[in-house]
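Now for a chain:

_____
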Amino acid sequence: MSGAPADLLPWCLAQLPDPAGAALAPLAGDASFRRYFRLRWTGGTAVACVAPPATEKNAEFLAVREQFAAAGVRVPGLFGVDRERGYLLLEDLGDALLLPALTPATVDACYAQAMDLLVALATAPCGELPPYDDAALQAELELFPVWFCDQLLGVPFDAVARERFQALSARLLASAGAQPRVPVHRDFHSRNLLITPEGLATIDFQDALCGPVTYDLVSLLRDCYCRWPDDAVYRWARTFHGELAARGLPGLPDVEGFLVTFDLMGLQRHLKVLGIFARLSLRDGKDGYLGDLPRVYGYVRDVLAAHPGEPALAAFAAWLDAGIAPRLPAQPWWSAP
């Protein structure tokens, strides 16, 4: 069973009515401590997940799965769960991730489907989802100075860097706080979307919160694993804004204001991701994410440059160019974005 707990297969068999010939085979993991196995039996398949309760948000996964399904978002079905052991038996949605299917010829249609899911979420109630508030957003931003600057690049924040980062953070949090609050997946991108016969489905949603309406949109359109031209990105964002406006989403700004909040929300996310990808390498030994750092850094630098009239962004950009940019070419993972 290639590393599966000895009691996992018997537990899986007990969840199914007639699992003749069942066997487990390992599946690729993700950035978490979860492990996945495909269960095959005569006439069917499922996915067994080993999610240690000490480290994984299993209760949240189950609650959000129900909430998203009720909103009309395709998520894996549930065959069984053992909360004490952290075992889940889920519907097998296949291996067809959206990322490799994205090409210049397919991306418009694929993103239209993905944005349909986001419209469904944005027009659904937050329910019991915790708030994606200033404290949560700031905690994420702090990953950038700690893990990317200090631990990965060896550039600790001095007083100037801290002052400029605090001013930038205040601007980003103010923008996020002014947006309509909707259910937010928080990792809505091409590696967490699966192509199924019924359309796109999403996974890895256990960290969902009630937060800014542009967050998932910028996660999708400025994906950390692929990049598209800015004119296409803004065209898709305008389309999404139009869908929300047609549905009367309360508090929605005009389209130009929406695009500014979209940019600033992406800046918050991508600063966080720089810290997360550095931490995944340094703390967790997952070096595969380092190759995506240049793309994510490129998003940060380009958004800063696109808003020269924003004093906090301009001051932080100047510090970034002086203190961080000269260190990048020497990094083994660096390539110019």
User: Anything to note?
Assistant: The mean pLDDT is 95.
